[in-house]
Amino acid sequence: MALGLAVPLAAAGTGLAQAAPATARPRRSTRAGHPFRDPALPFEKRVEDLLGRLTRKEKISLLHQYQPAIPRLGLKPFRTGSEALHGLAWLGKATVFPQALGLASTWNPALIERVGTAVGDEARGFQHERPKGWGLNLWAPVVNLLRDPRWGRNEEGYSEDPYLSGVISTAYGTGLQGDHPQYLKTAPTIKHYLANNTEKNRSTSDSVLPPRARHEYYQAAFRPALRADAVTGVMTSYNLVNGRPATVDPGLDETVRKWAGKDLFNVTDADAPNNLIKGQDYYPTLAEADAAALKAGIDSFTSDSEDSSKTVEALTTALEKGLITEADLDTAVRHILGIRCRLGEFDPDGGPYGKIPASVVDSPEHRALARRTAREAIVLLKNEPPPGGGAVLPLDARKTAKVAVVGSLADTLYTDWYSGSLPYGVTPREGIAARLGAAGEVTGGEGVDRIALKNAATGACLTAGSGAEGAVLTESGDGSSTEAQFDVFDWGEGIVTLRSAANAKYLGYDGKVFRNDQEQPGGWFVQQQFVLEKQADGARLVRYAGYETLTDWFGDKKYLKAGEDGTVTLVTKQNATSYQVETVRDGVAEAVEAAREADAAVVVVGTMPAINGREDHDRTSMALAEGQAALVKAVRRANPRTVVVLETSYPQTVTWEQEHIPALVWTTHAGQETGNALADVLFGDHNPAGRLTQTWYRSEDDLPDLLEYDIIKADRTYLYFRGDPLYPFGHGLSYSTFRYGRPRLSSHTLERDGAVTVSVRVTNTGSRDGDEVVQLYTRRRGSRDKQPLRQLNGFERVRLKAGRSMTVRLKLRAADLAHWDVTRGREVVESGVVEVRVGASSSDIRGRTTLRVRGEKIPPRDLSQTTRAASFDDYRGVRLVDESKERGEAVGAVEDRAWVLFRDADLGRGAGKLTARVAREGRGSGTLTVRLGSPRGRVIGSAEVPGTGDRYAYKSVTARLRGARGRHDVYLVFSDEMRLSAFSLR
């Protein structure tokens, strides 16, 4: 199963030997002195010794996420999967770095490697306590490409660009696993393989990937870290890819393992094995499903939480029925033991990383690193003088005595699903106040209304509690006390959260009653969401929205109503209580008053990571929440020196703000040091140099359907987008200005296996020291195939003192210019001219030159050879589907008169026969027609396609061809639904 491993791993000294014979009996010996515990032996010998001592039952037990102890051999329990996306999650207080999107926005791989080192150290630091969920197999980094900013998990990825994602993931993974040549500090797992970028129906949605999109885009994000041995395995994704669940993708063995120089340990996503039989309905039994996953390349089953019994039973049954062999078990267990051995678990002293102390967790050094990373991730989107002149940023603390800090995120640091617990938190207001010091003054509030909700019939108000634990919500107050008052936070599209004025806790639902006891909105079902539905008479119905509007488990929408004892329950709309909203405090009015009297106003708005988009929920709007947008406009009218800080997990369509606000700053939810980092940038103590890692669009109308994964055909991402973005990929401003010289090449000719150096002189022409991110893009002039309009091929973040210059050198390899040749199923470097561009963003190009590439010319297609149908050049009305459950892809026509194109085919002196492998599940028969020139062009042959009874039942059909000679664009046109796996024209 582990293809291509034996020789390279042995050569590297860290690989594992071939499987022991299935009939080998476990060796018996005393616990002391087992060879697998001898650090002087090579890893492969230690693993083989331990593998030989395991019983069949013990081997199977190790294939679940929760691997049990094996006392007779002195093995401790082992758990896969500690979350470590931007710091350790779910283990208690630990250093929280900016979200992954923010890490990439630094464009500083050396810094991100340091972050990975810190997170890896903290994982080791927790080994002394081993809290629930602790383990050294870390599930990070995430490299799923941010091809659509509406993805709910946008903050987990790095970029829409595979090159940038590859560089950052390699840096982070390298830091996580340490720099020892053999041992691992931690074992990072890269995820989620493959093309996982939507949450809607995420376990049943199908990511349709034509070959070029798969190889050039989606797989390209995973390859770098695996080739650099910066990660130790992959996690599969929930979705299907071309009709086959990713959990049983044969590419795990046949492709992914070939990228890595060392052995890999592959895992499933949580409960994905169960999806194979429930939801995806791909296999009838769990035994068949788990067997298929194991044979595809899965080594560990993340399923049923801590209960391993179902997995053990399924694999035992699979073994008994011959669906798998003991050699298959040994292959997976060998991968598991190899990782555990490299982690030092079997060494008497725990290996070289075994003594990292608990004191590293949230250490002063890590706090300083968190602050540096947070400020390097900040992107200055806009900085122009308001009416009256003088740029707003940076703020001058000597001249800015009073700053109004307002907005729904001014006083709160929100955490996301995979965030750690903040050991402390510096809010934007606190950071700005600390920077101003005693000589300055910070005014303003959060800019949200404080209200009371009064029963229109009885006059009683919804009332909570004042203690730390709050109280059950009742109708009992008159609105005069804080227990009957709530701060209303608007998160867009009608969704609000209600924070009790009595104890600053959020109102939430526990399935029985409402209580104000929540620190912040969160949980898998975010049960702190409400909608205040306005009625014709101006009153409001309070709808509970914590059931998540995109799910149906809760049933009909429910509304608040108080019973006879005053306790609030949920009822249907017809029985809901009508409430009058009494405004106790007008948040916008307070913000305007503070802004009007301030020297500058800072409005901190953005998103709530558990509400606006997150795991299992894609975004339904890219706009700012209506209430937040109104606050921004009101503050801008009150004070022209307004700065808007966008604290979001994804791009926003802030077109009005870009046009009217003089200064715009963006940051992710950046962890414990958010406020200090913002203050560093706002006051110029740090000259911003963060850059956007994905396109910010002007409107949702700029985007195709969320489930459209063919970025080439759909003109998706900065690579192919032909519109005018709000902010382009790579955008970010500075308080300095930088002049670029003309780019120069070490050679104006590039051989197909060679490389050139692109050099450019960069000068800081400003009055401040600062960083510049020098970006290298290419565009091919002429190609057989559609090419990107621009493509990142290199970058470097450099620091320049004011008035100083330096030469930046970026390497460009011929391999960087390769694309997937569908005619021959391999990468190709085409001969031709490539435009080399150097600049400050994908749109801000400062210099160009040209490079002649000596590669090869793609020849005409030879359709006389058996041709895979999936290797088409263009298509309409088809999907790529699974040829069989085990492997292979076919073209599935899903519309009448669907077609696939095979461009520039040389039919020679005449092709006389069409032979095609087809499957047709439906009744009756259809036709497969060969046309030249267009889908309605000249017919040269047509084959009848009979019903085959099953989508996986293929048969060969033939047809006589007439007039099939010379070079043509060949179209295969389907009369209706059918599948085509391969064909030839001979």
UniProtKB/TrEMBL annotation:
Q: Could you tell me the keywords of this UniProt record?
A: Hydrolase, Signal
According to the UniProt entry, where is the signal peptide? 1-19
Determine if Signal is one of this entry's keywords.
Answer: yes
PROSITE patterns reported for this sequence: CBM6
Annotated region (Disordered) at 18-38
Is Signal tagged as a keyword?
yes
Q: Which Pfam families match?
A: CBM_6 (PF03422), Fn3-like (PF14310), Glyco_hydro_3 (PF00933), Glyco_hydro_3_C (PF01915)
Query: SUPFAM superfamilies annotated for this entry?
Result: (Trans)glycosidases, Beta-D-glucan exohydrolase, C-terminal domain, Galactose-binding domain-like, Ricin B-like lectins
InterPro entries in alphabetical order? BXL, CBM6, Cellulose-bd_IV, Fn3-like, Galactose-bd-like_sf, GH, Glyco_hydro_3_C, Glyco_hydro_3_C_sf
Question: What positions does the domain CBM6 occupy?
Answer: 865-986
GO MF terms, alphabetically ordered: hydrolase activity
PANTHER family in UniProt: BETA-D-XYLOSIDASE 5-RELATED (PTHR42721:SF3), SUGAR HYDROLASE-RELATED (PTHR42721)
Q: Which family does it belong to?
A: Belongs to the glycosyl hydrolase 3 family.
- Write the protein's name: Glycoside hydrolase family 3 C-terminal domain-containing protein
Q: Which organism is it from?
A: Streptomyces spirodelae
